[in-house]
Write a structure and sequence with these properties.
The protein is α/β, with parallel strands linked by helices and 340 residues long. 49% of the residues lie in helices and 16% in strands. The strands form 4 sheets. The chain has a 5-stranded parallel beta sheet with strand order 2-1-3-4-5, sandwiched between helices. The protein has a 3-stranded antiparallel beta sheet with strand order 9-8-10. Helix 4 (117-128) links the parallel strand 4 and strand 5 (133-136). The longest helix has 18 residues, at 139-156.
Amino acid sequence: MNSKIRYQVFISSTYTDLKEERQAVLMALLEMDCFPVGMELFPAADTNQMDFIKKEIDNSDYYILIIGGRYGSVNKEGISFTEAEFDYALSKNIPILVFRHSNPDKIERGKSEIENIKAFNKFKAKACKDRLVKDWNNRDDLKYKIVIALKHSFECNPQTGYIRADALGKLHKYNTTHSLKASTGKKTNLRTKKSKEETRREWLSEDFSIRYTDDDSLKKKESVNPFLLNEIMNLRNGREKIESDHCDRIITMKWQDIYLTLGEDLRNSTDIRTITNRLSAFIENRTGLSKVYICSDDITAIMDKLNAMKLVGRVSKYNRNWIFRTIGERLYSELKIRDI
C-alpha cells in the first residue's frame, strides 16, 4: 500500500520587504504539492499571535528562514517575531533551512535595517551558525534554491508529513488484513517488520547524482576571472567548502556503490574529509580525471541519508565522526560477500 506523503512547510521572514519573494516561494511550494504556511495565510482570529504561530510550527515538517535586510517588528521583549519563530522551531527540533541575502549592502534603503542593526546582525549570526546556509540574490534565485534544498531534505531527512484520510483508512485495512496473531496471542504486523529490510535493499539499487568539478575546470575559471584565484586556492587546499556554484559536472552512482566505497572507513570511525577523499578517489578512477572536488552539500546529503536509513550514526555527542550502526555493518558485510 503506497500513499503519497505531503509536507507542511513554514515560511518565516520579515514581511513588507519580502512580499514578492514570499509569494514566489509560496507558489513554488504549491507546485511541489506541499502545504505552505505563512503570515499571509493566517486567518483573522481572537488569539495571541505567537500562540497561533507556535501551533502552526508544531504542525509543520520543515521550517524555512529567509533573511533579507531587515530585523522586523519586535515583541514586548524586544525580539523580532522572525527570531522568536526561529527560536521556537529550533527548540522543537524541526528541520531548518536558512536562505540569506548574498549582498545586503545592495538592498534598497527602504528594505534594509536602520534602527536594529546590532540585533539583526546578532540574529543572522545565530541563525547561520553550524548549519549549511544558501545565499540568494533575487526572487528567482531564492525560489530555485529553496526547491533544490527541500528536495534534498525530503530524500535525506524525511519527516512525518500528511496523507489523505481515505488513504489512511485503506492503509489500516491493508495492514489489518496482512497481520496475524503470534503464538503469544499478540498481534504482529508482518509487513511492518519486513518493510524495513525491503526498503533498505530497494534503496541500494537507486541512483544518486553527485555534483563535482575538477582541476582543469578550476584552471579555466582562473583564466577567465583572476579575482577567483585566492578562492580557488582555498578550495584546492580544503580550506573552503565546495559550493554547487563551482560544480559543473555530475556523476550518477548507485547507493550500493557509495555504500561499498565508504564501508571500510565506516567500520571504524571516520570524518567528513576522509569520506570526501574516498568518494573523490572513486570518481577519479571512474572518470580518469586527475583531481576532483565534490559539492559539500552532496556529501552532507549522503551522510544524512545513511543516517536516516539507520545504517550509520555519530560516534558520540562530542565526537562528530561517523561510524556504522550494527545493522549498517551487517548489510555492508552481506554486500561485500555478494560483490566478490
